[in-house]
Design goal:
This protein is an alpha+beta fold. It contains two helices and four strands, in the order E-E-H-E-E-H. It has one domain.
Length: about 80
């Protein structure tokens, strides 16, 4: 199922904060928020992917939230970047 975009949500306010073409771009923003404002700034965030089902419907699939999202940011930071 092809991913259309990645969305970052604030779970407390139920607001979509941003949409990204790649997962890495979303993780980069979470990392920036964490570095600038600390763990409280990302505790209520959730990352999901918007994808199209075989029947053509568009759905949101959760990827990670809170601490699990921060763990993904940390893991992504350890991966070498393609240049």
């Amino acid at each position: 199922m092809p991913v259309i975009e990645y969305e970052l949500w604030d779970m407390e306010s139920a607001n979509r904060l941003a949409a990204f073409p790649t997962r890495q771009e979303a993780l980069d923003l979470v990392d920036e928020m964490f570095r600038h404002d600390g763990p409280e700034a990302v505790a209520s965030l959730a990352l999901g992917e918007i994808f199209q089902t075989p029947s053509g419907d568009v759905e949101l699939r959760p990827i990670a939230d809170g601490r699990a999202l921060l763990d993904q940011v940390t893991a992504a930071a350890r991966q070498p970047r393609a240049s």
